[in-house]
Design goal:
The protein is built from ten helices and twelve strands. By secondary structure, the protein is an alpha/beta fold. It has a three-stranded parallel β-sheet. Bound molecules: glutamic acid. Glutamic acid binds next to loops.
Length: 295
């Protein structure tokens, strides 16, 4: 059975961009007698707020989007993430990193050939070569993040691929060879976050039996390393359907700061939810149809 999900972070009110993502996942499931599930990605305690979570439920209901089963809250699932990190550690793929953002920026500036990812320079691997002893000693007194040694992990996992039913930002479609190194040695956990976005997403997509991950094209690069984590953790591989982003009048991605485009604001202006959904569906148009599974 087709299972899709909407996975918002309660760090602000839902805006037109998030409504589009929700509608896309919803329509894909409903069009195929599938299930549409909800997940609240609320483990970044510094940015998530309970009132935004409540607003997510209200706004989705106002739009007329019903989800199947109870919503999964990531803050309830920390033990599952810890177990996954432990498994990766047992595979010898996890190392502590003591670098601050500033250290990383300085290291990148010093290096002539710093590797770059889609969002800028990648972590240059400064702490990857520390001996166990040295790392152990520093862990007693310094704060650290846990990173995945992606190069080593790729040697263990071998060649991987995933199926893209939508479109990547460069039109990528169909069977895609995974390039997990695109984002460098990703963080798995840090002082502020018991589990990183990538780690929690793969664990939860599996827990919710998600078979088609739908989300914006800005997260396309994430699929490459998430595919690797699925292989290392023996989790099933969903298909992916990345969709285009709804842009504002100036061609920028909506952000949580665009108060005028929040569903709250549109509702206060007296806009009808059906009309918002219709407009968003028209935008999706051929894009939605093209990315239907099996087509
Ligand atoms: N929580 C993420 C966001 O709000 C979505 C992650 C995903 O769909 O994989 O952008």
């Amino acid at each position: 059975m087709l299972v899709t999900r909407f996975a918002p972070s309660p760090t602000g009110f839902l805006h037109l961009g998030s409504a589009y993502a929700a509608l896309f996942a919803h329509d894909m499931a409903r069009g195929h007698d599938g299930r549409f599930v909800l997940r609240i990605e609320d483990i970044d305690a510094t940015r998530c707020r309970p009132e935004f979570e409540t607003a997510i439920y209200e706004d989705l209901r106002w739009l007329g989007l019903c989800w199947d089963g109870p919503a999964l809250r990531q803050s309830d699932r920390l033990l599952h993430y810890q177990a996954a990190i432990q498994r990766l550690d047992e595979l010898g793929l996890v190392y502590p990193c003591f670098c601050s953002r500033k250290d990383i920026a300085q290291e990148v500036a010093r290096s002539l050939s710093a590797p770059h990812g889609p969002d800028g320079p990648l972590y240059p691997g400064t702490c990857r070569g520390l001996t166990r002893r040295e790392a152990g000693l520093r862990m007693r007194s310094e704060t650290y993040a846990l990173r995945l040694d992606v190069g080593k992990a790729v040697m263990q996992s071998g060649v991987l691929a995933f199926d893209e039913r939508g479109r990547g930002p460069r039109g990528e479609h169909g069977r895609i060879a995974a390039e997990p190194l695109r984002l460098g040695d990703i963080v798995l956990a840090s002082r502020d976050r018991a589990a990183s976005y990538h780690l929690s997403v793969v664990v939860d997509d599996a827990a919710q039996s998600v078979s088609l991950v739908t989300r914006g094209q800005d997260l396309f690069a994430a699929a490459h390393v998430q595919r690797l984590l699925q292989a290392l953790l023996n989790l099933p591989t969903p298909d992916y359907a990345h969709h285009d982003l709804v842009l504002d009048a100036t061609g920028r991605k909506f952000s949580k700061r665009d108060h005028g485009a929040t569903l709250r604001a549109l509702r206060a202006e007296g806009q009808a939810p059906e009309e918002i959904c219709n407009q968003l569906r028209r935008r999706a148009g051929a894009g939605l149809a093209r990315s239907l599974p099996g087509t």
